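Why does residue order matter? Because the sequence determines the fold. Keep that principle in mind as you read this record.
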Amino acid sequence: MDTSVVGGFFDPEFQEDTRQFFKMLEDGEMVFVVSDLMELELLEAPSIVGELLSRYSKHCFEKVCLTEEATKLAASYIVEKVVGKSSIEDCRHIAIATIAKVDVLASWNFRHIVNLDKIRGYNSVNLRNGYSILEIRSPKELLKNG
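Structure:
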């Protein structure tokens, strides 16, 4: 998941679905993959948002890191004009998830991530560079009743 999902826990627009999504984590129905990049972004978030993940057992999470390989793949998304340079952090989240082969990247970022044209662009770059297709969905789409 990306940082927008953590923020969605407290955002009135996304709160209900995000809390159901976290309930699936609590119930052991899924493991959240979190990156060191997300952890850095959460340091700049309001404390209530930044501290949310600490409420859960470390066993609920798998940690992945921003590597040189992910940095290069993220730059490829920019070079291929999937998104503009200002979206490099979003590209890094996608590249990390792609390289880690996560099942699904969850995000509430509909402008740069959960957007069909952008998803096609990211996956086109992934395939041309020898990576698998990455599933990208909103938390709502991942709920049992979603």
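The longest strand covers residues 32-35.
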